[in-house]
Amino acid sequence: MKQDDIAWLQCISCHTTYSLNYKGYVCEKCGDLLDIVLDLERVKVRDWQVFRERPRGVWRYHELIPVDPSRRVTLNEGGTPLIECKKLSRWAGLKKLYIKFEGVNPTGSFKDRGMTVAVTKALELGVKGVICASTGNTAASLAAYAARASLPCITVIPEGAALGKVFQAIAHGAVLIKVKGSFDQALRIVFSKAEELGYYILNSVNAWRIEGQKTLGYEVAEEVSGEYNIFIPVGNCGNIAAVWKGLTELKNLGLVEHTPRMIGVQAEGASPFAKMVEEGWETLRPVDNPQTIASAIRIGRPVNWKKALRAVKESRGDAIVVSDKEILEAQTAIARLEGLGVEPASAASVAGVRKAVEKGVVDPDEATVCICTGHLLKDLNSELFKPKALIEIEPNEEELVRGIISMVL
Fold first, then answer.
1. At CA 24, angle to CA 107 and CA 70, rounded to 5?
2. pLDDT value at position 1?
């Protein structure tokens, strides 16, 4: 069976359809974003067993990903741990809280889920090279998967991109272009130059990125039963839309009975989507100069806001705004109560849960999954953590013993 027999690209607004070999990112008629739509009646999956007989990871679900799995470009991404956090649950005021720790993906963030599928599709399409704008994680991930696929790669980064992520992109051989401005300005440059260069854009405006990231929803649904909430950091709005897409497909296939409420969390200085949801606006009001310590979600004009709004509305979800102070408090609590190291943007999801409980947005008895999108080492900042004790001693045994005793007593 041909891939086009079971799937197609479709505009989210006017519903114009396109072949899976369409190289565009938006609808030619109305200019809106595209979705990849599966004809679920023709997908030969009706129970979990077909997946559970395979190794964990993104490609465990290849029947639901309409690319050729024999050509996949993979670093064994996905299959990340779902960790019950009892002490953090008490800190947040919840009965049961889980962290889905995406920081253990190959390049340290959830972006790898989208890149394995999108770069595989890029090879199918026979593109000359790949390009993205990025606050850091997308650049690191695309550079790694482009190297794996032997594709030339350009990444355009704004000022303030986290050094650890930039170093990853350099290490994997990407060409870096630094823009004096924001992520949104970097993305405009990518769109203005990609066609001229003959390069394929792999930001989340590309529907194939969403198609890989939806597997995060598949994995959560495999492991959590009953009713629960998902809290997820929101920057460009792609991940919350992707997770909901995956969960909706499972519901329509009859593989899950309940779908969770999707609750997006944004930082106070970069919160156009959350404010739109809170105020009941139907159109996004961009932030021209977004500011937050959580660099991965420092985005003022999220391109996937319509898809994200659909996810929140269809799931009866919500959006929460948290301050940088609340993000850092959550990051410290995650690290010191549970031993998990996450970057500030990841910690926004946990900060959001605590605030949602305080505001009565969620019931403390409801199970909650927090998506922690990236590893602590992705975004290092010496101001984030202060040591509980720092004792300087002379390098001899007597001083060593005295120093240790002083710390523990």
1. 50
2. 37
In this structure, is residue 255 part of a structural domain? yes
pTM of the model: 0.92
Cα→Cα distances 311→14, 118, 209, 237, Å? 18, 22, 17, 10
119 within domain boundaries: no
Does residue 229 lie in a domain region? yes
CATH of residue 317: 3.40.50.1100
SS3 content of the chain, % helix, strand, coil (to 5): 45, 15, 40
The two three-digit tokens of residue 354, written as one number: 């605590």
What b-and-e string marks burial along 126-147, b requiring 16 or more CB atoms within 10 Å of the CB?
A: ebebbbbbbbbbbbbbbbbbbb
Split into its structural domains, the chain has a count of 1
Q: In terms of residue numbers, what domain contains 264?
A: 82-107+209-378
pLDDT digits (tens, 9 = 90+) for 334-368: 999 999 999 999 999 999 999 999 999 999 999 99
- What are φ and ψ of residue 98, in 5° steps? -115, 150
